[in-house]
């Protein structure tokens, strides 16, 4: 090919070396991103490669907002311009040394001056493209300057200097003219990296044009094809094309390869990952396209090309939350002819011959253009525009042969499907829905299509009674659980040592292995590292009684962990910490389950939450919430000294190491707080009236001394027993709270005298009882009773929480 002003060798050399890289707005969102792009351009691009850039961050949107605001009264446009100017000049100043920055700022100031004249009405701009073009121009100019500053030879090119097109909703590129102009510009300068503005082109009358939103992808393949490039790399903020839009769908999978036709279909269906026309200019024999991440260069990428594949497979799920549907009267022959002139392919169309209707579905972006066309053609109401429709589609070669196709169709049968069909090339299944798309529906559909079993890493803190019992239980339950999610224990820790293995620890001889393999650790340091564990979700099982761990809950949530606690310290923390825990939990959308903190394995929280979910209101809960106190009081009689019972209970391991923890009712206060908070009441320690059983003089002494002097407990206890007996009653340690109509809460913990025949007076020692009055259970309470402690039932309760968690995480919301 002979080109004026260039030798044949120059033309050839340009074609041989050139590769095109494209960086979108998200790759140029701030100064840090620019530096990263500059590094990629020097490290990953050859010396004569061409780089196509979009406007930085959301500059295009900002310019559009300024144009819209300028049409209205008020100073919004000026304010928006000021913000844009600050952003752009900020980038320049941050990236370039003072001299370079000064000259670039001067250029930009002249541009902004033009915007100002436009806003003041002193300069009319015939096309939005004239102003939109600045976005890409600023990026190209700045990136070239940054590269030069770093010692790389680079120049910027305004695409309007070479890319010539005929104006249309999809501008028609004048290839020959454009190619020559581009080669004249770049071929004489091998060894210079040219930074070209994406998105824009020049019209036949030298007017500015755009190639449509996200048009820089198209610019990149256009430039590639004009230069006969072998490779175009589209650098995005995503590591290639995924099974769905990661902004809408939670657990997408990345695709190493995509066929031309599949990528084309995906783009045609309006997926924002590639402009619909990206593949039009591509010579498939010669060119390879990669989509990869500019944020994480080392990540996988998607190569788009011609690949042999054995089996057809649905690869990408895509959706449009709003499409425009047009109903056309086929009887109107004139209109049918005029349709050809629309010059725009619908995303999907079908006819209903019996009704003489054709339906055309368009992308929302084309609404303005089509509306203008409709006004022109005077269609006598033969076209009806229908809103409120959406689209979902599954893209993959020979889609109809896949199981996913069947799943897709089946899952959609419960939706309001207006039309279901195949794309023209059989590589997409498309459904037009008469409904809005909600994220839950999309996520569910995606996970069903890609049948993705998610993984959960479990870190067990506390390997005491409950921890050990739970690990044994988990061992038995593992196979069943793993059908729901891939659940692995990634670590077991006591207060000093941790056995960590991200691959999942082997549980067969876990106790001996722990002794052998556990290493000293610091929880706060571990926390920083944990988010890197290769799991979709992580949960901490806090099976300790440690206050310092409860204090870490906010940062556990903030580091992305869910929590299952048997530890009461967080749920009963003082209001300030409790509030912080809840706030951070909600902010990071984490789960927190703690069913065993009250009543061990008893289904208390299920009952309460289920009643509330049905519409009932809890009025009061009272009862004996402590197994220890239940044991002590049910065995206490005139024949036995209370203090001896305390000693025996301690001996049997029924009490805390310091029995005063139980006797002072702290444990009960904790449970009461947790219960009250569970039903949404604001309650703190000082709101609870507590009558401790530990006399003042026994409070500040050592445990040993207390045990020695324990008989000093007996006199007041015997007095209690006797005075209760006078009325045929017995003393019991009760905890209770009640809520008045005005939602005032009364909560107390202390001795009450109960008629000897009452159920509260006749528990099996150790038994817990919860008496729940609600709006509906007002005559007769709902009573839940049973063992409120014990390692087996508690481990079972922890397992129940894990099951709940799995249910929530796998249901995908
Ligand atoms: P840029 O302007 O940087 O070129 P965009 O932000 O316009 O890039 O497009 C990339 C975005 O496309 C991604 O951030 C992602 O949210 C979205 N996207 C939609 N569908 C997909 C998909 N299947 N795979 C990857 N990204 C997708
Ligand atoms: N800056 C343009 C847009 O935002 C083009 C592009 O990003 O590709 O649409
Ligand atoms: Mg974009």
Automatic annotation (TrEMBL):
Domain Aspartate/glutamate/uridylate kinase: 18-290
Stretches assigned to the Homoserine dehydrogenase catalytic domain: 608-802
Keywords: Amino-acid biosynthesis, ATP-binding, Kinase, Methionine biosynthesis, NADP, Nucleotide-binding, Oxidoreductase, Threonine biosynthesis, Transferase
PROSITE patterns (alphabetical): ASPARTOKINASE
Superkingdom assignment: Bacteria
Pathway(s) served: Amino-acid biosynthesis; L-methionine biosynthesis via de novo pathway; L-homoserine from L-aspartate: step 1/3; Amino-acid biosynthesis; L-threonine biosynthesis; L-threonine from L-aspartate: step 3/5; Amino-acid biosynthesis; L-methionine biosynthesis via de novo pathway; L-homoserine from L-aspartate: step 3/3; Amino-acid biosynthesis; L-threonine biosynthesis; L-threonine from L-aspartate: step 1/5
SUPFAM superfamilies per record: Carbamate kinase-like (SSF53633), Glyceraldehyde-3-phosphate dehydrogenase-like, C-terminal domain (SSF55347), NAD(P)-binding Rossmann-fold domains (SSF51735)
Pfam families in alphabetical order: AA_kinase (PF00696), Homoserine_dh (PF00742), NAD_binding_3 (PF03447)
GO molecular function: aspartate kinase activity; ATP binding; homoserine dehydrogenase activity; NADP binding
One BP annotation, GO: lysine biosynthetic process via diaminopimelate
Entry cofactors: a metal cation
EC assignment: 2.7.2.4, 1.1.1.3
Spans through the membrane: none
Catalyses which reaction(s): L-aspartate + ATP = 4-phospho-L-aspartate + ADP; L-homoserine + NADP(+) = L-aspartate 4-semialdehyde + NADPH + H(+); L-homoserine + NAD(+) = L-aspartate 4-semialdehyde + NADH + H(+)
InterPro entries noted in UniProt: AceGlu_kinase-like_sf, AK-HD, Asp/Glu/Uridylate_kinase, Asp/hSer_DH_NAD-bd, AsparK_Bifunc_asparK/hSer_DH, Aspartate_kinase_CS, Bifunc_Aspkin/hSer_DH, HDH_cat
Sequence ranges assigned to domain Aspartate/homoserine dehydrogenase NAD-binding in this UniProt record: 462-594
Subunit structure: Homotetramer.
Family: In the N-terminal section; belongs to the aspartokinase family.
PANTHER family for the chain: HOMOSERINE DEHYDROGENASE, PTHR43070
Listed name of the protein: Bifunctional aspartokinase/homoserine dehydrogenase
């Amino acid at each position: 090919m002979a080109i004026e002003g260039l030798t044949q060798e120059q033309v050839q050399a340009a074609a041989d070396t050139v590769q095109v890289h494209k960086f979108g707005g998200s790759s140029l969102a701030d100064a840090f991103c620019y530096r990263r792009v500059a590094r990629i351009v020097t490290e990953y691009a050859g010396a004569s490669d061409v780089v196509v850039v979009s406007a930085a961050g959301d500059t295009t949107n900002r310019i559009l907002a300024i144009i819209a605001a300028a049409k209205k009264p008020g100073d919004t446009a000026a304010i928006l311009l000021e913000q844009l100017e600050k952003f752009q000049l900020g980038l320049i100043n941050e990236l370039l040394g003072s001299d370079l920055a000064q000259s670039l700022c001067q250029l930009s100031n002249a541009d902004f001056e033009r915007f100002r004249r436009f806003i003041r009405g002193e300069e009319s701009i015939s096309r939005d493209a004239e102003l939109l073009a600045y976005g890409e121009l600023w990026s190209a100019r700045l990136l070239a300057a940054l590269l030069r500053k770093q010692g790389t030879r680079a120049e910027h090119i305004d695409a309007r200097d070479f890319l010539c097109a005929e104006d249309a909703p999809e501008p028609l590129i004048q290839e020959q003219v454009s190619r020559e102009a581009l080669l004249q510009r770049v071929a004489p300068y091998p060894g210079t990296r040219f930074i070209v503005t994406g998105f824009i082109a020049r019209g036949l009358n030298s007017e500015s044009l755009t190639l449509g939103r996200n048009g820089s992808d198209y610019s990149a393949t256009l430039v590639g094809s004009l230069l006969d490039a072998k490779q175009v790399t589209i650098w995005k903020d995503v590591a290639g094309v995924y099974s769905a839009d990661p902004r809408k769908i939670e657990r997408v999978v990345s695709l190493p390869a995509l066929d031309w036709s599949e990528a084309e279909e995906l783009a045609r269906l309006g997926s924002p990952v590639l402009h619909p026309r990206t593949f039009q200019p591509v010579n498939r024999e010669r060119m390879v396209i990669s989509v990869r991440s500019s944020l994480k260069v080392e990540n996988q990428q998607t190569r788009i090309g011609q690949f042999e594949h054995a089996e057809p497979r649905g690869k990408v799920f895509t959706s449009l939350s709003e499409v425009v549907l047009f109903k056309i009267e086929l009887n109107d022959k004139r209109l049918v002819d005029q349709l050809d002139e629309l010059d725009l392919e619908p995303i999907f169309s079908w006819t209903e011959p019996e009704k003489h209707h054709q339906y055309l579905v368009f992308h929302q972006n084309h609404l303005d253009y089509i509306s203008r066309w409709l006004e022109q053609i005077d269609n006598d109401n033969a076209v009806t525009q229908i809103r409120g429709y959406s689209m979902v589609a599954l893209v993959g070669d020979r889609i109809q042969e896949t199981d996913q196709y069947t799943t897709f169709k089946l899952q959609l049968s419960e939706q309001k499907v207006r039309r279901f069909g195949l794309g023209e090339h059989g590589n997409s299944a498309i459904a037009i829905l008469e409904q809005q798309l909600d994220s839950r529906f999309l996520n569910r559909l995606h996970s069903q299509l890609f049948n993705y079993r998610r993984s959960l890493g479990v870190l067990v803190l506390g390997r005491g009674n409950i921890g050990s019992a739970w690990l044994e239980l988990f061992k038995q339950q593992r196979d069943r659980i793993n059908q729901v999610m891939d659940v692995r224990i990634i670590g077991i820790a006591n207060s000093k040592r941790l056995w960590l293995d991200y691959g999942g620890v082997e549980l067969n001889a876990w106790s001996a292995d722990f002794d052998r393999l556990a290493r000293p650790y610091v929880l706060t340091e571990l926390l920083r590292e944990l988010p890197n564990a290769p799991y979709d979700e992580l949960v901490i099982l806090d099976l300790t009684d440690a206050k310092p761990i409860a204090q870490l809950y906010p940062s556990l949530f903030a580091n992305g962990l869910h929590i299952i606690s048997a530890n009461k310290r967080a749920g009963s923390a003082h209001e300030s910490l409790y509030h912080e825990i809840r706030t951070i939990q909600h902010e990071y959308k984490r789960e927190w389950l703690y069913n065993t903190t009250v009543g061990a394995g008893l289904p208390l929280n299920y009952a309460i939450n289920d009643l509330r979910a049905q519409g009932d209101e809890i009025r009061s809960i009272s009862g004996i919430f402590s197994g220890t106190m239940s044991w002590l009081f049910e065995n206490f009689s005139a024949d036995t000294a209370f203090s001896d019972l305390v000693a025996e209970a301690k001996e049997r391991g029924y009490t805390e190491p310091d029995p005063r923890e139980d006797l002072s009712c702290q444990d009960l206060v904790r449970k009461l707080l947790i219960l009250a908070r569970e039903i949404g009441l604001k309650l703190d320690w000082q709101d609870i009236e507590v009558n401790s059983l530990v006399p003042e003089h026994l409070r500040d002494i050592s445990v040993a001394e207390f045990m020695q002097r324990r008989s000093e407990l007996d006199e007041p206890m015997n007095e209690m027993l006797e005075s209760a007996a006078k009325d045929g009653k017995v003393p019991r340690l009760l905890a209770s709270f009640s809520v008045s109509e005005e939602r005032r809460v009364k909560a107390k913990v202390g001795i009450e005298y109960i008629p000897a025949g009452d159920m509260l007076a006749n528990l099996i020692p150790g038994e817990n009882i919860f008496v729940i009055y609600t709006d509906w259970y007002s005559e007769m309470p709902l009573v839940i009773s049973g063992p409120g402690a014990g390692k087996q039932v508690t481990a079972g309760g922890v397992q129940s929480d894990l099951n709940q968690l799995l249910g929530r995480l796998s249901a995908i919301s």
